[in-house]
């Protein structure tokens, strides 16, 4: 029993580490005056992608080369920098409609960029023989909760910062994207 608790505890810490990027990006997204319904949907999609990506990593781990993995990390980082830059610069012009929003394809691209690191974790999970279903559920649940927390905190901060919140939110997304690219 203690071995099972130790394994679940280790998976919980791993899930928390994987979900921290969703929290960081959630802070920036929350400053966009998102409705609670949109926040709930974004968190669910991010959580779902944190289940799908490690599952795909487990399934296709031996078939995928390291070079393809580095290209997905590059694409995810560039996407976050692009969303952050668009958000940052749109703060200077209130007439400009936001081009990239967490709806439709933009939401799925955002969730994909946040869960790319989960894919590589899935590769190692398949090799280690860990309890896959528990790991995947923990990854999804923790990342969804952390993204919700980030967006709700970002939403509150936006009220205090007013027009500067969009600059801060964009800066957070740019910084996280650069961290994905170069960190």
Set out the fold topology:
Elements: H1 2-30, H2 36-60, H3 66-90, H4 104-128, H5 132-161, H6 164-182
What does this structure look like?
- The chain is mainly α.
- It has one domain (2-182).
- 84% of the residues lie in helices and 0% in strands.
- It is built from six helices and no strands.
- The chain has helices at 2-30, 36-60, 66-90, 104-128, 132-161, 164-182.
- Helix 1 (2-30) runs antiparallel to helix 4, helix 2 packs parallel to helix 4 and helix 5 packs antiparallel against helix 6 (164-182).
- The longest helix is centred in the C-terminal third of the chain and has 30 residues, at 132-161.
- It is globular and about 55 Å long.
- The N and C termini lie far apart (38 Å).
Low-confidence stretches: 95-99
The sequence of SSEs as H and E is HHHHHH
Inertia-based shape: globular
Oligomer: single chain
User: Can you give the helix content as a percent range?
Assistant: over 70%
The figure for the number of domains is 1
Overall mean confidence score, pLDDT: 77
**Main β-sheet: number of strands, strand sense, barrel status?**
none
Question: Over the alpha carbons, how many angstroms does the gyration radius reach?
Answer: 17 Å
> Count of helical segments?
6
Strand content: under 5%
Task: Classify the secondary structure makeup into a structural class.
Answer: mainly alpha
Distance between the termini: 38 Å
How many strand elements? Answer: 0
Keywords: Cell membrane, Ion transport, Manganese, Membrane, Transmembrane, Transmembrane helix, Transport
Transmembrane segments: 12-29, 41-64, 70-93, 105-127, 133-154, 161-182
Subcellular location: Cell membrane
Membrane topology: Multi-pass membrane protein
């Amino acid at each position: 029993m203690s071995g099972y608790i130790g394994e679940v505890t280790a998976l919980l810490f791993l899930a928390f580490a994987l979900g921290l990027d969703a929290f960081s990006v959630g802070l920036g997204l929350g400053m966009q005056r998102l409705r609670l319904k949109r926040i709930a949907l974004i968190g669910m999609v991010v959580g779902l992608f944190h289940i799908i990506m490690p599952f795909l990593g487990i399934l296709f781990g031996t078939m995928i080369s390291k070079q393809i993995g580095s290209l997905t990390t590059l694409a995810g980082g560039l996407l976050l920098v692009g969303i952050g830059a668009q958000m940052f610069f749109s703060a200077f012009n209130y007439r400009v409609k936001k081009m990239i929003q967490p709806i439709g394809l933009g939401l799925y691209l955002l969730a994909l960029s946040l869960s790319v690191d989960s894919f590589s974790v899935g590769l190692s999970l398949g090799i280690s023989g860990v309890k896959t279903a528990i790991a995947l559920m923990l990854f999804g649940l923790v990342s969804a909760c952390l993204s919700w927390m980030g967006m709700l905190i970002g939403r509150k901060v936006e009220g205090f910062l007013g027009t500067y919140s969009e600059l801060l939110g964009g800066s957070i997304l740019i910084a996280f994207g650069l961290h994905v690219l170069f960190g």
